[in-house]
Amino acid sequence: MDDDNEDSGRSGGSGGDRDGSGGGDDEARGAPVGRRVVLGLLGLGAAGVVAGPWLQRAQDAVARNDPTGLSRALPGGGGFRYYSVTASVPERGEDDYTLTVDGLVERPATLRLADLRALPQRRLVHDVQCVTGWRVPATPFEGVPLSALLDAAGVRPEGRAVRFGCFDGAYTESLTLEQARRDDVLVALRMQDTPIGHAHGGPVRLYVAPMYFYKSAKWLSSVTVTDTVRPGYWERLGYDVDAWVGRSNGRDDAPTS
Ligand SMILES: Nc1nc2c(c(=O)[nH]1)N[C@H]1C(S)=C(S)[C@@H](COP(=O)(O)O)O[C@H]1N2
Ligand SMILES: [Mo]
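Structure for Molybdopterin-dependent oxidoreductase, as requested:
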């Protein structure tokens, strides 16, 4: 429904952005933070800015009309909203999913789902907070602490940050090494106590508990140690790189971790 769509936030009263500052409801229309930021970016990879809103609407149209059951996983599921910056994302699973850990590490690695499952898992339960305003209470995530993967790969002394890549081929995220090593940052295999489904970024997504949900990259495919923070997809479009819930993006939400 359109009134279930953040596109309609400002006129339709989605309850998204309370004060008009910060993330606002612009994320869904692909124009985070402000029009000036967007205008400044036109000509610099603006395809994503233009494509965003159209794609979000296309997804909603699919959710309304698609009889195949795809809509099950789209907006409405427990308060979560479906996000993707690409029109479609390939499905990957047991046979073809891999996570590479590379960059400034001693031992680059490629892990399959079974490899990730074989490592010690941690389960965390925190609220999820999207920068556009919606919040989902007490959501369990479970997976491998990112720090364990970094330790296994052996971060070289010059490593300062981590860049995350996704198999949608478009989304990226970033953390400082210090943030990445926090014990509430997971390479998550489970969400809501079930394996993460495709719509929520499965089979593996990043989970950064204390930060706005845009940090929790879906369809995670690479973890690359870098020497500097390389701002991620939304961050190049204006979102804060240090995305602490309640202390960034001009918002004052209660912390999630
Ligand atoms: N690959 C990828 N990861 C992503 C996004 C995206 O568009 N693509 N959107 C982010 C944003 S803004 C949010 S709020 C959450 C939404 O997760 P959900 O679709 O499981 O609700 O995913 C984050 N991770
Ligand atoms: Mo978001």
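The first strand starts at residue 99 and ends at 103.
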